[in-house]
Amino acid sequence: MHAVNAGYAKAILFGEHFVVFGLPGIVAGLPLHATARIKKNNQGIFLHCPWHQQPLNVLKNRSASVSKIGRMILAQLRIPFTKRFLIEVRTTIPSNGGLGSSAALSVAITRALSHHFKKNLSDNEINSIAFKCEKIFHQTPSGIDNTAATYGGLFWFQKKKPKNQTKFLHPSKPLPCILVNSGIHGSTKKAVARVRRRKQKNPALFRRLFKEYRRLASDALRALQNGDLSLLGTLMNQNQELLQQIGVSNSTLNKITLSALHEGALGAKITGAGLGGNVLVLASNFREQKKIQHALQRLGYACIPATLH
Ligand code: PMV
Q1: Which of 50, 181, 260, 280 has the CA that lies 20 to 30 A from 75?
Q2: Is 228 a pocket residue for ligand 1 (Cβ < 6 Å)?
Q3: Measured from the CB, is residue 273 less than 6 Å from ligand 1?
Q4: Which three-class secondary structure state does DSSP give residue 284?
Q5: Which positions of the chain have pLDDT values less than 50?
Q6: What is the helix (H) or strand (E) element at residue 5, kind and residue range?
Q7: CA-CA distance, 34 to 103, in Å (whole number)?
Q8: What is the C-alpha to C-alpha distance for residues 260 and 269, in angstroms, rounded to an integer?
Q9: 253: helix, coil or strand?
């Protein structure tokens, strides 16, 4: 199923932030991806990604996160820094949108370099390098984004030692969803740090929220397996309430979820780190999916229809 040298975007159905603390999450690959190609260049090692207008000199630029991840991947793959080439990245994934754009970028670059320099890395090796890159981007990632970016598909994820748990799921019905862009850039690093601070300040609240979320995640797994979209929507709404309580929603995101529900959605919640980015909306069928998408577009939000399966 893998496109050559691609890293996939994802939407978290359940459990963003909770996964950072070792609770389970459910995530689905999206039909959006980043791809990378290695091209000739005589001046050194350059990386051109759509976030930067000009190619960055990976060895000389010490500050940009993308050149840091470039150096990290080169070192991991034992590619001599004396080589000369350009890594060109293209992506259809909006950045800072909670859709895993940074992990997809790391996976695409690692795959392209592995392919070009005949390193023959396995998906597991690519995933573990992308996890190291996620640490550069976000400091304390759970591992859910790089896993989704490497493998795609819909799966149950739990951060565990010595090895994260990933169980691929096959929902009995496809999920007609819409991604609704809030138009606000969300920083994963800031959102994760904010949740950690809140947890330190209020451990009792978080104990209660974690307990509620654990129940919700196992109900969601059953609802997916039974193709119970109505229950799944209700659980997404409950997850959104928990996300509000941990402090990663805001008035725009709340307004989008309420508008979607008003238009007949079964469920609507933040997907990804929050404070901006996208809202994931679940419709009861494909006709409703179109109807809700058009209504939200009329309200001025950019939408991407996405059927998760
Ligand atoms: O906003 P994104 O796409 O980077 O998603 C991050 C998901 C979090 O749970 C908030 C962080 C993580 O590492 O799991």
Answers
A1: 50
A2: no
A3: yes
A4: coil
A5: 1
A6: none
A7: 9
A8: 10
A9: helix
Token readout for 34 is 């980043």
Per the structure block, which two tokens stand in for 42?
A: 């005589």
DSSP secondary structure letters along 184-217: S---HHHHHHHHHHHHHH-HHHHHHHHHHHHHHH
Entry field: residues in the chain: 309
Q: For residue 32, what is the enclosing H or E element? A: strand 25-39
pLDDT at 1: 44
CA of 136 relative to ligand 1 center, distance in Å: 13
Query: What is the β-pairing status of strands 175-181 and 302-308?
Result: antiparallel
Q: Are 249 and 279 in contact (CB under 8 A)?
A: no
Q: Is 223 left (phi over 0), alpha (psi -120 to 50) or beta?
A: alpha
For residue 130, give both structure tokens. Answer: 């992308």
Closest-lying ligand 1 atom to the alpha carbon of residue 10: 3
Angle, CA of 264, 251 and 208, to the nearest 5°: 85
* Residue 40: count of CB within 10 angstroms of its CB: 7
Predicted confidence at residue 157, as pLDDT, reads 98
Tokens standing for residue 159 = 């951060």
The per-residue pLDDT for 51 is: 87
Q: How far apart are CA 283 and CA 24, in angstroms?
A: 24
Residue-level pLDDT at 151: 97
Could you give the angle at the alpha carbon of 9 between the alpha carbons of 290 and 275, nearest 5°? 80
What number of other Cβ atoms are within 10 A of residue 4's Cβ? 11
Q: Which two tokens stand for residue 37?
A: 């190609």
Domains of the chain: 6-168 (3.30.230.10), 175-308 (3.30.70.890)
Note whether 18 and 213 are within 8 A (CB).
Answer: yes
pTM for this prediction: 0.96
Q: Looking up tokens 């104990």, which residue turns up?
A: 207
What's the pLDDT score for residue 95? 87
- Please choose, from the candidates 214, 222, 254, 215, the residue with its C-alpha nearest in 3D space to the C-alpha of residue 237: 254
pLDDT at 96: 83
